[in-house]
Design a protein that fits this description.
heterodimer, A: alpha+beta, about 45% strand, B: 6 helices
């Protein structure tokens, strides 16, 4: 059996997950990041994307993450996410609406909206749609 | 001496009021419970955030940390105050206390050097009649506070600070201790005090780890500090909401008790008036019978 470690996913509003897992795959700011038990201590920025958790019971959980940090210490891994949604919680129609809204903002970009924010919104919506469809 | 009919109508009114205050008390109690849960569930995040700040502070302790949100300006002439008040009344001295505290904080500054950011309608109407310029007005969602609300406020105050419109920012909110105790509190939000946030996590534990930083410690700090401000605001908002519900619950509970006392007092005088009426009628009959003899 593979070595396990404790994983917590917390958002400002609540604790999303607290479990023993064998591996977790994260969207770091500059590329995907996989963590197994015994990883060196690490602090990393997170981007937008999917987070795949393999629990010690053998299950696989998928979360949509958007921004935040991950702290890997010897004993545990903590994900401080801005938002984290389990695949089953994602409302596909809402995500599609958000995507359309963001695209519309993108087409009439002027000085009033921040382009980075619009890009981030589009990326967020696309990730959520992809995860929701996949489950 | 009021007539029996007058007393009866007063009893009826008191009973109606009592029913309303009782209902409000129960609603406040239910909401307080939810708000308390929210305060609880926000705790792991802010604790962890604190830990991460501590590890970062240790990693960067040798170097000179530079970040716009850490830059202390001396003397601090222009002040920003973020005050969290209530949207609705009927919560005892809650709104009065927080506004009193805010006024205390503002007292040493000239109105033109002050920028106010007000959360809650009570505060907005209060400062409309005063010379202090209000640059931001918000209303917190009392039943389902979202982190994005705190972020929105956070964005504005950071902009004010970085652009130099304010030199220091205080946060005035009601800290929640229990359903019966809430205290108005003032904290300095900006500039972030490194002693508290970065080194406050205490000395490194035994076998403290050398962290790898991805992409770099400075870049993480740059992202972390604004988030730290948002977290503090979120905490203040959720504390304030819990306090407001707690305050309302206590106020409504004593209002219900007072209405009960009033009803029993009025019932007593109603009975007395009825008895006096009967005695008077008997006296009249006796008097009449006496006269017929």
């Amino acid at each position: 059996m593979a070595a396990t470690f404790a994983l917590d996913i917390v958002t400002p509003e609540k604790t999303v997950l607290s479990d023993t897992v064998t591996s977790v795959q994260l969207p770091a700011a500059d590329g995907s990041l996989g963590i197994l038990a015994g990883h060196a201590p690490l602090l990393a920025e997170l981007g937008v994307g999917e987070c795949i958790v393999k629990t010690s019971a053998g299950g696989e959980e998928v979360y949509a993450l958007a921004g935040g940090f991950v702290e890997v210490s010897r004993e545990r891994v903590t994900i401080l996410a801005d938002t984290a949604e389990h695949a089953s919680e994602i409302d596909l129609t809402r995500a599609e609406e958000a995507l359309n809204r963001a695209r519309e903002m993108f087409t009439r970009l002027d000085g009033t909206v921040n382009q980075d924010e619009v890009n981030a919104a589009i990326q967020r919506a696309q990730t959520r749609i992809r995860i929701a469809r996949g489950s | 001496m009021p007539t029996m009919r007058q007393i009866r109508s007063r009893i009826r009114t008191s009973k109606n009021i009592q029913q309303i205050t009782k209902a409000m008390k129960m609603v406040a109690a239910a909401r307080l419970k939810k708000a308390q849960e929210r305060v609880q569930s926000a705790r792991p995040y802010s604790e962890k955030m604190h830990d991460v700040m501590g590890s970062l502070g240790r990693a960067l302790s040798g170097t000179q940390i530079k970040h716009p949100l850490l830059e202390v300006r001396d003397p601090a002439v222009r002040v920003g105050v973020l005050t969290v008040t209530a949207d609705r009344g009927l919560c005892g001295s809650y709104a009065t206390n927080i506004l009193k505290k805010t006024t205390e904080v503002l007292a040493p500054y000239a109105p033109e050097n002050v920028r106010l950011i007000v959360v809650g309608r009570k505060g907005i109407t209060f400062f409309r009649r005063r010379p202090y310029p209000v640059v931001g007005e918000y209303s917190a969602n009392m039943t389902g506070l979202a982190f994005s609300e705190a972020q929105e406020i956070g964005r504005q105050v950071r902009e004010l600070y970085v652009s130099g419109e304010i030199d220091v920012l205080y946060l005035v909110y009601t800290r929640f201790f229990s359903a019966l105790t809430q205290r108005p509190t003032v904290v300095q939000l900006l500039p972030i005090t490194p002693e508290e946030s970065l080194e406050g996590a205490g000395p490194a534990e035994a076998g403290s780890e050398d962290y790898l930083f991805e992409p770099s410690a400075e870049s993480i700090l740059g992202r972390l500090l604004p988030r730290y401000v948002d977290t503090l605001i979120y905490q203040a908002l959720s504390d304030a909401i819990a306090s407001e519900h707690g305050s309302r619950m206590t106020a409504m509970s004593s209002a219900t008790d007072n209405a009960g006392k009033m009803i029993s007092g009025l019932t007593l005088s109603l009975n007395r008036a009825r008895q006096a009426n009967i005695t008077k009628e008997i006296a009249e009959i006796v008097g009449g019978a006496e006269a017929l003899k």
